[in-house]
Automatic annotation (TrEMBL):
Residues 320-333 form the SRP54-type proteins GTP-binding domain. Gene3D superfamilies: P-loop containing nucleotide triphosphate hydrolases, Signal recognition particle SRP54, nucleotide-binding domain. Involved in targeting and insertion of nascent membrane proteins into the cytoplasmic membrane. Acts as a receptor for the complex formed by the signal recognition particle (SRP) and the ribosome-nascent chain (RNC). Interaction with SRP-RNC leads to the transfer of the RNC complex to the Sec translocase for insertion into the membrane, the hydrolysis of GTP by both Ffh and FtsY, and the dissociation of the SRP-FtsY complex into the individual components. This is Signal recognition particle receptor FtsY. Pfam families: SRP54 (PF00448), SRP54_N (PF02881). The lineage of its organism: Bacteria, Pseudomonadati, Pseudomonadota, Betaproteobacteria, Burkholderiales. Part of the signal recognition particle protein translocation system, which is composed of SRP and FtsY. SRP is a ribonucleoprotein composed of Ffh and a 4.5S RNA molecule. GTP binds at residues 154-161, 235-239, 299-302. GO terms for cellular component: cytoplasm; plasma membrane. One of its GO terms (molecular function) is GTPase activity. Residues 1-24 are annotated as: Disordered. The gene is ftsY.
Amino acid sequence: MFSFFKKKPQEPAPQANAPVTPAPTLGQEAPVAVATPAEIVAAVTPIEQKQSWVARLKVGLSKTSSNLTTLFVGAKIGDELYEELESALLMSDAGVDATQFLLDELKRKVKNEKLTEAAQVKSALRSLLLDMLTPLQKPLVLEQHQPLVIMITGVNGAGKTTTIGKLAKHLQTHGQSVLLAAGDTFRAAAREQLTVWGQRNNVTVIAQESGDPAAVAFDAVHSAQARGTNVVMVDTAGRLPTQLHLMEELKKIKRVTAKGMASAPHEILLVIDGNTGQNALTQVKVFDDALGLTGLVVTKLDGTAKGGVLAAIARARPIPVYFIGVGEQIEDLQPFNAQEFVEALLG
Ligand SMILES: Nc1nc2c(ncn2[C@@H]2O[C@H](COP(=O)(O)OP(=O)(O)OP(=O)(O)O)[C@@H](O)[C@H]2O)c(=O)[nH]1
């Protein structure tokens, strides 16, 4: 079992003569909820589901895994092994910097620990990768703000809307009320998709016939404040990092959201298609420079994804990977767990 979300730790009870916190008003941030116990909520994933989920991750990453593991079979430690490893890491989308870093560290480890067997080198690589990816493993913390406002961004087709749907379900399972802002005003079908999904799942969706996604986000924040909703997720239209005017639009959504609630958006997530390869790193850099990302969601790791891009991200922009997706079912979105990921890659 692993944590899905983390809840804000309980704060000490106020003194009897402590000043009373004024009631929140529209446009003003409500006081932080204090009644939550300090706990990490266990995922409600039954063991069979969990196994099938990990199995799907392994299948998804099997090409990289087989490239990385077979080169150690019957190998001698030396230049040839390191060259093969370099190629396998580059082919896994780890990129030049992370590949070089891993190779240098590995050679140092082999020397310092006087390793003599290829199997020992493989386990040294496993532990290096784990050290590299563990800093990316962070849970999304709930109940720090009322409402918690999450903005979801990404290129077209990365899996934003699907992720929002899955996350909304998971949040509801963890006792959170959810409101969605249909900020993809560019594509009418996207708005309808979210609205229909919301109706089916009893989640309020704030949408506007036409117009400004920033206004939709602003309305959603106010509406959530008025209703006492726990989490607002703002969907945004897919865009390429090279579409500068659309990147400006995202900045505007962020700015206008902050007018509705000074501290919002509290989380700005970038959804990345795991099959995008090294281009994913470019996306992370450009969206982060524009918006200040707080987390990533890497989808479609069940397909032909190679997985190494997480190492590239860990080296270049270590932004937490809150969730990874390995399919279209709700349980296919799970928190990123570095240990599981490294096991899927290196067996
Ligand atoms: N195999 C697989 N498919 C996924 C995953 N996540 C999303 N998808 C599929 O990817 C496609 C695109 O997903 P959307 O959620 O519509 O992507 P989007 O980013 O909202 O797309 P735009 O609104 O066009 O920008 C859909 O067919 C999803 O079912 C995943 O983890 N695995």
